[in-house]
Amino acid sequence: MDSIEEKRVFGDRSGALEVYVASSIGVVRVRVAGDTVGEFGLCERCDTRDVAATADSVAIATDEDVRVLEGETRTDGTGGSDGEFVDTGFGPAVAVGSDGTALLAADAEGRVARRSADGAWTDLTNELDATVQAIDGDFVATAGGVYRVHDGKLTDAGLTDARDVDEAGTPLVATAAGLFRLGNGWMTEIEGSFEAVAVAPDGSPAHSRRAYAVSTDAVYAFDGEEWDEVPSPDGRIVAVDYGEAVYAVTEDGTFLAATDDVETNGWREHVLGVRDVAGLAAVSPRSSE
To answer: Could you tell me which residue ranges the HVO-0234-like beta-propeller domain spans (predicted)?
Structure first.
């Protein structure tokens, strides 16, 4: 083995992080260390529409139910688990997310609900007249715009045709009309049609956190001060997230890890062997405190 990173993903895996990829045939677990990709394999066979992860949980939205990963959690700081996915009783879902303390999910009929600590689902609405595309924190991105959870219900927060949202730091939303940041209202960051966005959960000031955004024809990185276009891989990126590096996945199942290596065009690519990919989520490492 040539590096510490390779030992972490191919050796005893101590310190390796996990990234989960949602596809039409199931969930793929990918072990990573920095931009080095190690073992990967199908850990749940089902039609998966979305996936969300925190340091304490992994949840998937499937055509049958919202499922959460349960089992013995490892204590090596990776936030990973070798358990199994179990049903939660929500029913078929199209999107899933976390507000930091509880799970949120949406179905195809306009229902959005929040799961309490005792496992019960409480509806936030049953009448949302727009397809939910993504959930993060208190924000719900839909084909009709952005909604926000307030006092146990959803309120209209503006914009139209929202495809993705990341609440970390200052919220960013990817829409058909551009990339928007929440400030004194929604402010345009970049014009164009955007598909995915991710903000680094690094604890830096909210307005200067690193971020990645994917448009229909380009990929952009925010360094804390300005946005710059970065190399685009082959294939359509459908999701992006932060771990020790930036990770992304294409619709046809190519897993990507961002790197400074110009010989790889800025991305290390690994074919996962799945199709119709819908989402990706990196398990957040636990604090050592």
So the answer is: 3-281
